[in-house]
Predict the 3D structure of the following.
Amino acid sequence: MHKKFIPITIVLAILLGLTIAGYVAPDEKQKLPVRILFKNSGGKVIFTHIKHHRDYEIPCEKCHHERDDGSKEPLPCGSCHPQTFDRDYVRDHINSFPDNSYCVKCHHAELGKLNFDHDAHEEYADEDCQACHHTADIEKEPQKCGNCHTSAGTPEVPSVRNAAHDRCVDCHDDMFKDGLKGCNPCHKMHDMNNYKGDHTPCAQCHQDEGKDLVLNRLDAFHDQCMDCHKKLKRGPYKDDDCDKCHLK
C-alpha cells in the first residue's frame, strides 16, 4: 500500500469501528429529570423530581404505577392521565404508548363465547319459551336476540346487552348484585395480551354517566402526592397548603 493512503485507511477504520460500536452498544437510559414544571390553572408547580427519587429514595414504581416488572421506563403521566377527557385525548392517547401491550390496561374485558346452556334453560323453564323470549304478539316464533337487538340499541329497542341482562336478572339476581364482577360466570374472556379484534367501546360496560374511567391529571397528582405527604405528616398536605406547591 502506498504510504499516502495509510492515514486515510486508518481514519476509515476508526470511523467504521465507531459506527459498529454505535449499533451494538445498548441504548443509553433516559436521564432522570432534575425538576419538572407542571402548568395548570391553579398556578405552576415545580416538582423536584430527582430530589424525591434520589434524596428521599422513593422507587420509580411508587409513583409510576405502570412499571409492573421494573423492566420498562416510566411513561409520561399524561399518557394515562389527561388534563381533560376531550376528543383530542381520545384521538391522540394511543400515540403516547410504546407498543400495543399497554392497551390491555384499559381494554381489559373483550367478551368471548357465552357460557349459556340453552337446553338446560328449556328444562328450567319447563319448555315455556316465553319465560325468556317475547310473547307471540312481538315474535311469533322464538328467535335469536340479535335479530332485533343491536349492539348499540335505539330508544325503541334496547341493546342486546341490556335486553339480555334485563331478562337474565329476573332469575339470576345473585350474579348481578356485584356489577361487573359478575361477568365471568356467563362470559368467557379473551386473553387480551393476544387479542387482535376490535375493542368494545368503554360505554358498553361502563355506563355511569359523568364518571371518568381514569383519574384526570389534577386528581391523580393530588391523590398521589397528598396521600404520601399525609402519611409522613411532612411537606404540603393540608387543605390550605396550596401555595406551598403552586406558584402565583
User: Anything to note?
Assistant: DSSP finds eight helices and four strands in the chain.
